[in-house]
Amino acid sequence: MLKIHLVAGGPLNLIPEFAPFDEKEAVWIGIDRGVYYLLNAGIRPEAAFGDFDSVTEEELAEIERKVKELKKFKPEKDETDMELALNWALEQEPEGITIFGATGGRLDHLMANIQLLLKPLQKKNDIHIEIIDLTNILYIKGPGTYTVEKMEDFKYISFLPVTPAVSGLTLENFKYPLNDCHIPMGSTLCISNELIRGHGTFSFSEGILLVVRSKD
């Protein structure tokens, strides 16, 4: 199944190695300076999106030589480079989308990138999107029941409402279980939980949750 990896130009020291994600079915897409990150890692992206205001003239010339599908935009536009690339990725109907280089640096960019995780819910499809950096994995879910696998490197799991509240939240096989709880936005009740078995489940009936898996 098709998997699409988007690489943006966030701080390089927060981006994990690409090799573990470079599966046979993976399609790599660069966003602005993220294109240069991919080329330096020996990965030639299928396409590149951006206004490319964060690369030098020499770097842009290399990108133009090596990337066959270059989608270049003016800096003055209604969408960010990330949103333009994500919209394209969703149109391909992949199994999943992974985003690198979306954290660190400017907080407004980080908040905007997290909000972009809502797009599958807005489009009423179930494409799973994750933002991944060296210490965090983030994704958003609507009402339903979901399984989470234990990950030793990312043992902390937090649940944050991104709507005024989340209703009916139930956590099973967690160190701090919950049963049919109402969690308002601003509550820290569901920060830094942990799985006590190989997998657990979370479920809720109303609202939207941001799930954050972290390590120290």
What percentage of the residues does DSSP assign to strands (E)?
Answer: 25-35%
Report the helical percentage.
Answer: 10-25%
Cα-based radius of gyration, to the nearest Å: 18 Å
The sequence of SSEs as H and E is: EEHEHEHEHHEEEEEEEE
Mean pLDDT: 93
Q: What does this 3D model show about the protein?
A:
There is one protein chain. The chain is α/β, with parallel strands linked by helices and 216 residues long. The protein has two domains: 3-134, 3-Layer(aba) Sandwich (Rossmann fold), CATH 3.40.50.10240; 141-214, Thiamin pyrophosphokinase, catalytic domain (Rossmann fold). 20% of the residues lie in helices and 34% in strands. The chain has helices spanning 33-40, 57-66, 81-91, 107-116, 119-122, and strands spanning 3-7, 26-31, 47-50, 70-72, 96-100, 128-132, 136-141, 144-149, 156-161, 165-172, 178-184, 199-204, 209-214. The mean pLDDT is 93.
Quick rundown:
With 216 residues, the protein is α/β, with parallel strands linked by helices.
Keywords:
Rossmann fold; 2 domains
Task: Record the SSE blueprint.
Elements: E1 3-7, E2 26-31, H1 33-40, E3 47-50, H2 57-66, E4 70-72, H3 81-91, E5 96-100, H4 107-116, H5 119-122, E6 128-132, E7 136-141, E8 144-149, E9 156-161, E10 165-172, E11 178-184, E12 199-204, E13 209-214
Parallel strand pairs: 1-2, 1-5, 2-3, 3-4, 5-6
Antiparallel strand pairs: 6-7, 7-13, 8-12, 9-13, 10-11, 10-12
